[in-house]
Design goal:
mainly alpha, 2 helices, elongated
Length: about 50
């Protein structure tokens, strides 16, 4: 069975907000945060019943 991940606009805005916060703390940390979020969302789509 194939699943589709739906991310609400509010969650996207929160993610970008915190990426900006991390970036203010340390250069490139915001980008690393976004990369990790993307990776974890990908894992959820690959094996959603695991979560």
């Amino acid at each position: 069975m194939k699943y589709t991940l739906i991310v609400k606009p509010e969650a996207e805005l929160d993610t970008l907000k915190y990426a900006k916060w991390y970036e203010e703390k340390q250069e490139n940390l915001g980008n690393r945060f976004l990369d990790e979020v993307e990776e974890k969302l990908h894992l959820v789509t690959q094996n959603p019943l695991h979560y």
